[in-house]
Amino acid sequence: MRAKHNKKRNIALVYEALVKEATVSILKGDKQRRDTAINIIKRHFRDGTELKKELDCVRSLSETRNADRLTSEKILKEVKLQKMLIDPESLFSQQSGLIRDINKDLDPDVFGNFVPNYKTLATINQMFSTSVTPKQRVILESSVIEHMMSEPEKTETIEEIDDITLKTFASKFNEKYQNELLEEQKTLLTHYISSFSNNGLELKMFLNEEISRLKATIVTAQETDVFESDTDMTVKAAEVLERLSSFSEESEMNEGTLLTILKTQSLVKEINNDADQD
After folding, report:
1. In a 3-state reduction of DSSP, which class is residue 32?
2. pLDDT tens column, 136-145
3. What's the pLDDT tens digit per position in 248-277?
4. What is the 3-class SS of 149-185, one letter each residue?
5. 133 and 176: one domain?
6. pTM over 0.85
7. 155 in a domain, yes or no?
8. Sequence-ordered list of residues with C-beta below 8 angstroms from that of 240, at least 6 positions apart, any chain
9. Do residues 59 and 125 both lie within one domain?
10. Minimal CA–CA distance to 101: which of 10, 38, 20, 40?
11. What is the structure's pLDDT at 149?
12. Model pLDDT, residue 168
């Protein structure tokens, strides 16, 4: 019989639920709720806390994909060693504080936010449990290893957003903005929220690749007849390129930068669509 899974005590699941809450709040334009969710992430998952240590252990397993068996087993072994260094009493106390703040400052519905990799996070959490039998632990560990060896599944970064939310978010762009978020925009938003607890490493890695892609598309578009015949478009394109280039020099990404990149992603999508139709 499998150990009962307590969602509120599953650190990684709660973290992902908070990221989702902050992301959706950005889309809805709810600055107060967004700030509250982000502040909870910052406060409870800062470096040195038992919650952050636990989260790092879980993510080392859940985010490893397409690895060979030997590597997967080595990662699992190291995670188990790191897990032993976490003070269980302190971890439980910090969990309780996190749950209390979510209930008080947000609401209990946050714990019900949809998390795409729920099953994997639940399996890892049960594997860490002290209440499982040796046989159950071996079965759970085998399942985690199989997960790390498997190909990553293509999943939505965030759940579908209702039309009202889309229209609110779209108003921050321009009148031509389409009522749907692009896959790259969803990814950017999630990395942006996650950056508050992981020093922005994943965000910086994504931005390096994404900005290079955006710049390359705009540079290519500048060589087309449409751009060359329109002085205003040429000037605007140059300004966008200059702004994109400056982002790599900024130490911290702010909301102005975020919105600029989101707008540019929409622009590049339109450019690509026009090119496909030609």
Report:
1. helix
2. 999 999 999 9
3. 555 567 777 777 888 888 888 877 776 566
4. HCCCCCCCCCCCCCHHHHHHHHCCCCCCCCCCCCHHH
5. no
6. no
7. no
8. 218, 264, 267
9. yes
10. 40
11. 96
12. 47
